[in-house]
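Lay summary

Proteins are chains of building blocks that fold into shapes. Our project writes down both the chain and a compact code for its shape. Here are two examples, one after the other.
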Amino acid sequence: MPNLLAKGRLARWSGVAGASLVTLTTMAGTVLAAAAEHAPDAAHGGEHASGGLPQLNPANFPTQIFWLALTFGVLYYLMSKKALPRVAEVLEARQERISRDLAKAAQLKEEAEAILAQVEKSLAGARAEAQGVIAQASADIEANNQARQAQLNADITERLRSAEASIAAAKEQALANIRAESTGIVRDIAGRLAGVEVDQAQADAAVAAVLEERRG
């Protein structure tokens, strides 16, 4: 595409140079003809012609037109074959460099956008992972607290049961000791006061009846 543009510009410039050559040649012929028409009269011919400008002498017009055409032809050739192609190459190289720079800029922009999207995706993933870790840690802490609370309640209940069992056992032992002591005391009192020998079974039954009555 840049090569086509350069060639189009070269063709336009070549056309402009050719048209300029034709125009300048025509204008030169017109100027020289006008100069010939306004040349000095024959009356002043000898002196004035000998001392006038050579380029205004009509006899020199064909030679001047030839050299004018030759000069512009050479200039046209040099412009169309040397200068203008070089200018076209420079323009083409410049256009290609601009196109490469634009393509590189577009590529860099796409890469930057891709990197930005990747970074945003990574940040979103990191946020989600962090929230998941926090939620899991909170759940673990809550579960651990509940487990500890349940274990503490179980330990307290077990200790209460053990204490109640110990108290009940101590109470039974105390009652057994009281019953035994009371039975001995009853037998001793009955023997000393009434002179009656009370056997062990009767004394136990009497003491048990009194204790049951006290409990009720």
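And here is the second example, written the same way.
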Amino acid sequence: MDDLETRELRYFVAVAERLHFGRAADDLGIAQPALSRAIQQIERRLGVALLERDRRSVSLTAAGEVLLRDARPALAAVGAAGRRAQRAGAPTRQLVLATKAGSSHEFLQALLDANAADAGATPIEVLLCEIGEQQGLLLDGSADAAIMHRPFDDFAGCDGVDLDSEAQVAIVPASHPLASRTSLTLAEVQHVPDLPIARWPLVGGGYPDGPGPEVRSQSQLAQLVALGKTLLVIPRSSRAWQWPEHVAVPVLDAPLATTVFAWPEGRLTPDVARLRATAERLQGSAALTA
């Protein structure tokens, strides 16, 4: 059996995800008959049925479910390889570092300064993202390294080195009675009737149950806190994005948040290794503990 081509995998995934040949063909920009023939050709080459079809519906067979599960990361790996190759061959090479906007600001600044002072280091391009996006940026080749945090971020498919740990604070509206407190506990911040904790999207889609507002970005969250609609618990160093309408109150029993320098699993390039060494030299400095 010949190996499947990337184009064929892309066609199959489009149909398998939409379970509709017409919509998949529109998304791919090809005619529906051509897409149907392509899927039939894949099935003939594999010798198995991938889809169950009738006049009203399309569904995956067991073989189709396996191919869909394996095809997604395969396509992602091909795309990542292309992006990494483009960056490596660019006239001016840069190392892309992904980090949550407003997160570990003092450490990020110290890392950029230290890298700039290293005459042999590759210049850094900072890629700011929302919460939980660093892993995807590493795996799809958009970023070479990332600043991440345990226990919040997903490290599947990533390697990393732990740096320093820090306490967490509750960001509350300055007008709320909690803003006058010198400290709080997790039980207290989790049971504030007029300030339900905001809910972030779950991996795979949807939101966890709860009364708090659904949020997708830190800017959205910041405004909701300022409006007195929610609160959040974050690492102490993330206060850099705090608004004048916010107050940070230490949460005494919150788990420590650990800053992690991460990279795609098995892809510790010389440039990334050099930046990792710089990050480790900064470990324990005021940049991480302030």
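What can we say about the second shape? Residues 286-290 have pLDDT under 50 and may be disordered.
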